[in-house]
Amino acid sequence: MSIAMPKPSEAVLSRREEIVSALRVIVPGEGVVDATNEMKAFESDGLTAYRQLPLVVVLPDNVGQVSRVLKYCHENDIPVVPRGAGTSLSGGALPLEDGVLLVLSKFNKVLDIDFDNRCAVVQPGVTNLGITKAVEHRGFYYAPDPSSQIACSIGGNIAENSGGVHCLKYGLTANNVLGIEFVTIEGEIVRLGGKHLDADGHYDMLGLMTGSEGLLGVVTEVTVRILQAPETARAVLIGFPSSEQAGECVASIIAKGIIPGGMEMMDRPAIHAAEDFVNAGYPRDVEALLIVELDGPKAEVDHLLTEVEAIAGENGATTTRVSQNEEERAAFWAGRKAAFPAVGRISPDYYCMDGTIPRKELPKVLAGMKAMEKKYGLKCANVFHAGDGNLHPLVLYDANAGELERAEEFGNDILKLCVEVGGVLTGEHGVGVEKRDLMPEMFSETDMNHQQRVKCTFDAKHLLNPGKVFPQLHRCAELGRMHVHKGEVAFPDLPRF
Ligand SMILES: Cc1cc2nc3c(=O)[nH]c(=O)nc-3n(C[C@H](O)[C@H](O)[C@H](O)COP(=O)(O)OP(=O)(O)OC[C@H]3O[C@@H](n4cnc5c(N)ncnc54)[C@H](O)[C@@H]3O)c2cc1C
């Protein structure tokens, strides 16, 4: 691990047995796991280069237990890392040696489906796809669709404000969550929003909680918007001799006022890896591939398809192929959705980045990545949520050959370039551990102090998911007054990791 985590508290480590016993009283039966071999399953999330056994794993199955566990941890100064399905790619669910790993997987029930109000109330451990499965018999679905949707939990989606191919038209998690129940580190149970469409209260607390990466509270119930499936959806594959032309085509489609249901881009290495893996029907003789999906009433879809094909031609497309049936549409998407595991077959390891840029900067960023491939002697495959400028470069490396640190530096340079061209460090995977130390690339000290004041309001002792998101811990009372004068750091005892 090249990113340092906070030093574990000896006081907590030395009281492990006492802590485990106390937690067993709160969560009886098999809800507390403390055997090393059983905790191994939880030592990592999707950022698999980072591993750490937790102090203990706790799997509550009701909100009362969550509340009492958090209250106990607060009173005893024990850090807590919330975990859903553990698919985070930024290390957000990475355990801490002196921390309780609070796993929400037993919260797996759909509580209420309200077709009249077009919403569903679910527990946070329900998978993203599980929501669609629960409502599809009436022609409904849940729109945000991360590629990990068969596994990732809706609680994790809220914590990361997750996105997917359909978010260009239908919005991210933040735009599809109507309400939550969450528990504070002090054990208070709080409800925000609900089935009604307008926010309650003066501040947009629901907006604040969405994307808070487990740093502000533990989500225990979720109300989401469900949508009626469109009458028709058709996808078109468009191949280009260069990524620049594909990028121009994306910009032209949006400039024409067309908002596709999804608009994804893959470069040559990603196209070949995906095609070899799932036989999606992708052309192999192109440098860049767009998958554009149009959805809505049939007449509208047919008309927009013609327009998109014309725009593609104007931008130098060499192949276009429109899906003729649902099976073919699903096959087009299967390749894109399997792009990460497909790349996993051509390289011993890969490191998935997640920067977002203004769309028009794509050619510049692609050229920059090409130069970085030479600089670091590593290859990179690219998949993009092209419509919203969210890049997922996959840096290919071999951990056994000692290439991890080089891959991380490559990834850091990509993200710095994204910020340099006016973009941001993360589109949908969160900051977590992975991008924590890059936060100063994007935020000034003042910006970060303001963000940490929000954290302090919810969790003054910094017990919820410490070591994630913020590169330094500040004692809340001292926030904003920490300056380095001639190299002498004030409050030298504050943990800097
Ligand atoms: C192959 C693959 C493809 C992916 N594709 C996408 C994609 O297309 N789009 C996308 O956005 N992401 C994608 N991801 C990333 C990941 O799936 C998402 O970030 C997802 O939302 C994480 O959900 P989870 O349940 O696995 O959360 P975890 O990994 O368990 O946790 C993620 C974060 O959420 C916090 N958390 C979890 N549950 C709760 C809760 N109940 N209350 C408070 N905090 C909580 C954790 O502390 C952690 O900080 C992909 C991951 C993989 C492995």
Automatic annotation (TrEMBL):
Identify the SUPFAM superfamilies for this entry. Answer: FAD-binding/transporter-associated domain-like (SSF56176), FAD-linked oxidases, C-terminal domain (SSF55103)
Q: Does the keyword NADP apply?
A: no
Cofactor(s) the protein needs? FAD
Q: Name one GO molecular function term.
A: oxidoreductase activity
Keyword annotations for this protein, in alphabetical order, are: FAD, Flavoprotein, Oxidoreductase
- Please give the start and end residues of each transmembrane region: none
Q: Which residues form the FAD-binding PCMH-type domain?
A: 50-229
* Pfam families per record: FAD-oxidase_C (PF02913), FAD_binding_4 (PF01565)
Q: Which domain of life is it from?
A: Bacteria
Protein name (record) = ATPase, E1-E2 type:FAD linked oxidase, C-terminal:FAD linked oxidase, N-terminal
